[in-house]
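Sequence and fold:
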Amino acid sequence: MKGEGKMVFKSKMKWVGLVGLVLSAFSLFVHFLLARFTEEGIAEYQSSITIFSWRPVFENAELSKTSPLYRRLWGPVRRFESLHPDANPRGHYADPIPLSNGYIFVRIQGGFREIRNSICDVVVVARLLNATLVIPELQSTTSSKGISSEFKSFAYLYNEDQFTAALAKDIKVVKTLPKDLKGARRKKEIPSFRVSHSASPYFYLHHVLPVLNKHSVVELVVSDGGCLQAMLPPHLEEYQRLRCRVAYHALRFREEVQELTTKILNRLRAPGRPFIAFDPGMTRDALAYYGCAELFQDVHTELIQHKRAWMIKRRIVKGKLSVNSVEQRHNGSCPLMPEEVGILLRAYGYPWDTIIYVSGGEVFGGQRTLIPLHAMFENVVDRTSLSTVWELSRIYGREVNLVDKYRKPPPSAVEEKKLESWKTAGPRPRPLPPPPARPKYPYNIEGWWGWVAESDNEPESTVIELRTNAHKLLWDAIDYVICVEADVFIPGFDHDGKGHPNFASLVMGHRLYQSASSKTFRPDRKEIAKLLEETREHLYQANHTWLTSIRRHLRRSLVDGAIEASAKLKPFSFLFHPVPECSCSRSNITETSAHTSRPSSDTQVDAVLGVTHHCPRWMDGETISRLKDKETEEVLDEDVSSFGLFFKNGVGSHESGGGEINKEENQLEDQEELEGVE
């Protein structure tokens, strides 16, 4: 009996063990399924419990939107209140002809700004040639290795369906070439044109169109940030409005990028206060192109000079290697440092607890250059402090792991020869072999300092750098939307490493189209450098006269800067200044009749900008509803008398305690605001 009991017990234990193994295998299988198919849910949960690095700090009471100080800091620019976006066709504009002349396939090279400008141009070219446009191919994504296979080329950044639907009445858009033409393209049998950014309509009508009619397809390679001249003849004005419809209505970022951008905007506005967007524009290419190396006085100076020597060798820069950076700065050719921008904002009256969003993926010099700005403003944030790693990884999609994360140094041929000669040397005793070379650690190879003294050439991009370049497109997309939607925008620099207007110029053009009356400072760097030199020794204890000069300059830059952009920036790209072609003027009938003795400031600004088209009648209702508010603002403007201290973290409201500027200076500034453009 005892033996039988032991056998039964052992058999039961075997069954228990078998059931345990089955349950363990089933548990592992369930965990695998959860990890494989619920990545998005885990990301959302992770982002919901993550503690963000930004904790807003406010000590001043929130200003009333009807207060004079709030209007001066955050209110609309009165002279531009009559300007409104209007990119709809204004004359006879026929629908695209069903039978096109052929297909246009486009390969676009460059960064975010170049891609956006080029897409607008190729749409206009397709309309001009009556051709069918194939969704453009973005080289920044197709040349990258290891990026997500979920998003390819154009779809990596923009929404293809929205792009196609929005342009249905302008051109015909298809996703791919027909099979026969696709095979010809693989064999490189279709004609190709490498076009410049200033190509004229004559070039396309007399050189590209005959080839298109003959082969039914042409390939355009766009690498200069555009493929059609910015200024078109008057009879092609409708094509300028087509550019606006493409840039501001058809080009929408893909859903994942748009969702994250909306989250970041909501987090910025969660405290219930307006915010400033600041784009430093301090890239190594721009600093090298304009010779601003001596602004840093450290290892970054050598890095800039190395890049400038490389540019001179490739004839990108025609000047000398050594340039007086002080003279360049005084001429306005160098960017404003973050510290100088912070001083301007504090001098204008923005308190220390103002929210400032810093855009741009790369601030040359690292976070060290932003330390003075953090010292002047408590709430300085960027996209990394307003989002989590999980949220950013979602917009990238599933990406493979890269093995060659760091650049491997090439083997030294000299050391190999020494070791080989030691082995084949004469009879023993022989000298000891040479000691091994010092190992190069990743932090020595990853940065610029790892190769700057080894070669005169720029190093080739690694796989991880190519992937980062693709990620930068998504980062720029997030920064672009936030800068356009910001209550105030100020650029540190408006040119890139090729002498062309940069990302900030593209943002300012979009803001001028979408909300012309929103505050967009365009400081004159030459004048700012002069004002800063006047009080360089007492910069943080500036007197009232200097503060008044800074405020007066920034106030004038709101209007004068936009007017000057028409002559300086528009010849490079139409999107940098889409006025007057894409704007309409909404006149205020009541105000005009009350001031018949002199023309209103809005009318004078419209005349200078060339806006002659009147807005549709359906906009008039909103105009009348705002008349009373505008009259109230004019009355309140006469009593702006408190500006607060320059650098003091005072407790209380913005309007309490603080060095006051006399009332005569305030009334003078108010009078300048109400006067027209000279």
Notes: Residues 2-37 form the longest helix (36 residues). The CA atoms of residues 305 and 468 lie 24 Å apart. Confidence is low (pLDDT under 50) at residues 39-51, 441-448, 589-598, 622-678. The first strand starts at residue 83 and ends at 85.
